[in-house]
Design brief:
- By secondary structure, this protein is of the alpha/beta class.
- It is 30% helix and 16% strand.
- The protein has 16 helices and 18 strands.
- The strands form 6 sheets. Strands 7-14-8-9-10 form a 5-stranded parallel β-sheet, with helices on one face. The chain has a 4-stranded mixed β-sheet with strand order 5-4-3-15, with no helix packed on it. The chain has a 3-stranded antiparallel β-sheet with strand order 11-12-13, with no helix packed on it.
- Strand 11 and strand 12 form a beta hairpin.
- The longest helix has 21 residues.
- The protein is globular and about 75 Å long.
- The relative contact order is 0.15.
- The structure holds 3-acetylpyridine adenine dinucleotide.
Length: 520
């Protein structure tokens, strides 16, 4: 059959690489274009440790938790929801969306919730995955076997307490953004928030109006801007945030799929347009830096000194950009102290900074992020009992972010080098799922017992990633979970290219990049 061009040649092909308005607007229309692979009857079981589906959107319950990608993009291509109640939807609304999708498409019958996977081992004798799990309710440990294993365990799931000296000596309330205790009443309290990543940026403006005092500890600087600074314009009641639609037209989108698609295209175009900003030395990067500096200073004009503590020396998008509606404004409020001095230790009653000052508080919120090293607490053992954690200790690598050699019939949702630095992750998740289905369909129809990428394909892709990232701002020096929480080093979390590029590459598997064993 016809050879599918490699990801490299696809990237070199300017026609594919170039982001033109047409191509961008095609995204929202085109991402259901792929034909669904014909998977024959499957015995499918979905295990999840939580008692409800939804993952991130079920687990994260901190005040202000929302998606900072526009809701009209952050949805499935085949299940558009024109009724999102705000531009950036809040976590509970997103969770309801996913529950309704699961109910509508009859997914729940496959789900066994409240079961946590402990480990998975490839059993060479029978060519199957043996997965050990525990039923959280009964504590019963049990095993399941499968021909193929898909892991969708999330790259931002394993939260940890930061290694701040004496943190656990604190006698007030200690909270983590990713494991929020909703029973804690923070109203009228003195609260410290450590961390200015996407989580901290959402927590601060949500707590600020209700607390007596908020101390915000900022270790690393951060750019606060969205491709959608327009939301700010929206607040000024002009029409810009409606993307050219009158308020009335926008309200009517619920009843008008054609106009809704046009509306989505405009938002998608703006979102995808951010890609060029990631290119080191590009004019777009230069302009973004100027614009963002100007916008941040404007929003902080009531307390200009805060801008001096916050404005980064690294380029925008080096670490994940977040629009932070209300964040900078909250930092200028009278009850907020921005503390750029580093923390030296925690005491029973508060935090001591390196200048020797002690700041008493009732609660400490750690919005300090996740373990993003790809070292999973759910170990996987492949051929010859090799552990995936061991394999990835120095360098998490994969074939197209989805498979690894030595781990047959194993597919990963959001493995190394599959996230997007700009753009909409759900589009990738959808493509990856279709890719897995193509592999399963091929196994079913061609008597394939095992499929795994060739070692050379993994190596090529990893080399390609390293080459690609050299030309992007992701490799600049800034502390980022894209580099496993480090300031420098390999970009292990991101896809090497634009969303369009990812869509093209994931559209059709290159079967020659895989090795196979056939049923005898
Ligand atoms: O975590 P982060 P996050 N002492 O790692 C600081 C997704 N997400 O939970 O920059 C003092 O980004 C650390 O400082 P520094 C999204 O993809 C999405 O906020 O390393 N400070 C940083 O400021 C996001 O990118 C949404 O110097 C310490 C912060 O804590 C990802 O999750 C919403 C410290 C950690 O920032 C992670 O975001 C929320 C220490 N010991 C999250 N350790 C959406 O809306 C760390 N810090 C889609």
């Amino acid at each position: 059959g016809e050879m599918v061009p490699s990801w490299e040649s696809q990237r070199r092909d300017p026609d594919v690489f170039e982001i033109t308005p047409d191509r961008i607007s095609n995204i929202s229309e085109c991402y259901p274009l792929h034909t669904n692979p014909r998977v024959h009857k499957l015995d499918l079981t979905v295990y999840d440790k939580n008692e409800e589906l939804g993952g991130t959107w079920f687990e994260n319950k901190y005040p202000g938790c929302a998606c900072d990608i526009p809701a009209h993009c952050y949805q499935l291509s085949f299940e558009a929801n024109p009724a999102w109640s705000s531009f950036y939807a809040k976590a509970p609304e997103i969770l309801e969306y996913w529950k309704s999708v699961a109910d509508k498409y009859g997914c729940r019958k496959y789900m066994k919730l409240g079961r946590k996977a402990l480990e998975a081992r490839w059993d060479e004798k029978v060519s199957k995955w043996a997965v050990k799990l525990v039923n959280i309710g009964t504590r019963e440990v049990f095993e399941d076997q499968a021909d193929a294993l898909i892991t969708a365990i999330g790259a931002l799931n394993e939260w940890e307490w930061p290694p701040i000296p004496r943190l656990h000596n604190f006698e007030g309330k200690l909270l983590h953004s990713a494991a929020w205790d909703q029973s804690y009443d923070y109203k009228g309290k003195k609260v410290a928030v450590i961390g200015a990543g996407s989580s901290g940026i959402q927590v601060v403006p949500s707590l600020q109006p209700d607390v007596e005092r908020l101390d915000h500890y900022i270790r690393g600087r951060t750019w606060i801007a969205g491709v959608f600074a327009r939301e700010e314009l929206d607040k000024r009641a002009d029409n810009a945030g409606n993307f050219g639609f009158t308020a009335e037209e926008k309200a009517n989108l619920v009843n008008d799929p054609v106009s809704y698609l046009a509306f989505r295209k405009k938002i998608e175009a703006e979102l995808q347009g951010g890609h060029i900003v990631t290119m080191r030395g590009s004019d777009a990067q230069k302009f973004a830096r100027e614009d963002f500096t100007h916008m941040m200073r404007n929003r902080l004009s009531k307390k200009p000194e805060v801008a001096e503590h916050l404005l980064p020396d690294f380029p925008p998008l080096c670490k994940r950009l977040t629009p932070g509606p209300g964040y900078l404004e909250a930092l200028t409020a009278d009850n907020v102290n921005v503390i750029p001095t580093q923390i030296s230790r925690v005491t029973s009653t508060g935090i001591t900074t390196e200048d020797g000052v002690h700041h008493s508080v009732d609660a400490i919120v750690c919005a300090t992020g996740f373990d993003t090293s790809f070292q999973s607490r759910f170990p996987l053992y492949g051929i010859n009992g090799i552990s995936l954690n061991e394999r990835w200790r120095d360098c998490p690598s994969s074939y197209l972010g989805m498979t690894v050699d030595g781990f047959p019939n194993h597919f990963m949702s959001l493995g190394p080098n599959s996230g997007l630095g700009t753009g909409n992750l759900l589009m990738i998740l959808e493509r990856q799922s279709t890719y897995f289905a193509s592999c399963l369909a091929r196994m079913q129809t061609q008597n394939i017992r095992t499929i795994s990428p060739k070692p050379s394909a993994v190596e090529d892709f990893s080399n390609f990633c390293d080459q690609y990232f050299k030309n992007t701002v992701f490799s600049d020096e800034c502390s980022s979970w894209y580099k496993g929480g480090k300031k420098t080093g390999r970009v292990s979390a991101l896809w090497p290219g634009s969303s369009l590029h990812a869509i093209q590459v994931l559209e059709t598997p290159r079967w020659e990049d895989f090795g196979y064993e056939y049923v005898d």
